[in-house]
Amino acid sequence: MSTEDTTDAEARERLIDLAAEFYDQFAAGEIPRMELPTRTKSNIEYDPEKKVWVYGDRKSTRTANSVSGARKLLKASYTIDFLANQLDEDRSSTLRELYYLSESWNNEEAQFNSQDESNNLVEDLEIVTGATREDFHMRPEESGAKVMGPLLIREQTQRGDRDIHCQKDVGQGGYQIPNDTDTIEFLDNDAEFVMCVETGGMRDRLVENGFDDEYDCLVVHLGGQPARATRRLTKRLHDELDLPVVVFCDGDPWSYRIYGSVAYGSIKSAHLSEYLATPEAEYVGIRPQDIVDYDLPTDPLSDSDVNALESELDDPRFQTEFWEEQIELQLDIGKKAEQQALASRGLDFVTDTYLPERLDEMGVL
Prior knowledge:
- It contains 13 helices and 17 strands.
- The protein is an alpha/beta fold and about 375 residues long.
- Helix 1 (about 10-25) runs antiparallel to helix 2 (about 65-90), helix 3 (about 95-100) packs across helix 4 (about 115-130) and helix 11 (about 305-310) packs antiparallel against helix 12 (about 320-335).
């Protein structure tokens, strides 16, 4: 799914067309309905050709033939009306605001019971219309993700275009990634590769040590499980600027899944995998082998860690010789380690030794 060329007018038209379908079904004496892929884990499959998660062929139908189903379509209709008006007025709002705003709707049955309910409905509308929530001018709460490195961009804002150099025009905190990264134009680029970093502490270490400057690296802070905007920008940096992407995470099963979401997409956003995922992204560390080779400070694996590692052995994203060896080694040693554990060998070890050697082995440097 690629929606980067969807205009406001097109997004609005798709929403109105969906509402018109409900009206036509009423007019024809039919029970209103909305069909979309079944959004369960059993209907998510890994596409080995595209190397991302996608929805399978199973469909489910939202229909007004029950009180519960009628409420869902009523809420969809009110939400469509709100989003269409928002686009018409060139306004925007957050997912949280949509949840609270529904309390002002004149039909109590249309109001949301929780933010999860409103979030899921927006995702349904993405799937049915083929547009994204960014196309609807909907944004999440700020993720706080930042970029630091030799890149000159032009960002479209409500107050006009701004040219920003992601090293020279920002403080040590870096350039904050906007919600809709398709409003960014790449003007000039001196970067050699992109490094996505899981933790803020390690991101700060790289910047403080001048890693971005010395190696012409774009350091992208993931902030834990990365927001959609972060993954979209990473994909654009790879596809449009032909930059290699590497992912630097903690050495535990949950961090491997963070890498997986950057490279292959997540189950939750399977309808957007081709829009967000970068299958060419490589994992730079921390690896279980690093725990052994560098005698890193560790924590023992918990039962949930072990279960997660065992499930990853059955995950198509991790069924490679590299991942199988690393996961089996981690299960054998029963340990996990954080990125900051590298500081046990000195504050400069990660930027002077660990990353340069690893990136050289990978052919990135």
